[in-house]
Design a protein that fits this description.
Blueprint: E1 6-9, H1 11-19, H2 26-32, E2 37-41, H3 42-53, H4 61-71, E3 74-76, H5 80-86, H6 96-108, E4 111-114, H7 117-120, E5 126-128
Parallel strand pairs: 1-2, 1-4, 2-3, 4-5
Helix pairs in contact: 1-4, 5-6
Length: 131
Amino acid sequence: MANRQSLLLDTHVFVWALEQVDKIGQTTLSLMQSGAAVYVSKVTLWELAIKYRTQKFPYETDYLLEGMKLSGFSLLDIDTDHLQKYAAVELSHKDPFDVLLIAQAEVEHFTFVTADRKILVSSYNLQDASR
């Protein structure tokens, strides 16, 4: 059986998939709907829980988990291999959530789906979510 492509969604792309799908480009949407395995990291849920608690984001974790389930996305746990890779990730900015998400994508050999220009200039395996 051939390996199917696996995608890891950046936090904003996950939110777009639930609430603003029109922000996701046609190529990326097609990729997400092509049978690729689509993952949301616990890192993303942690980041959004922090934003919810500080009233910078309107949705509780239960809503996000339900949306993830209804969308057919899988949850990616944080593994020690991801934490070991963390130190080797080089991005132009130091956002710890972005660094850990990239580390996870690298360890798992997933394509990281983002529209973040600060990440898109890097040399990791990426898909521009706006395309």
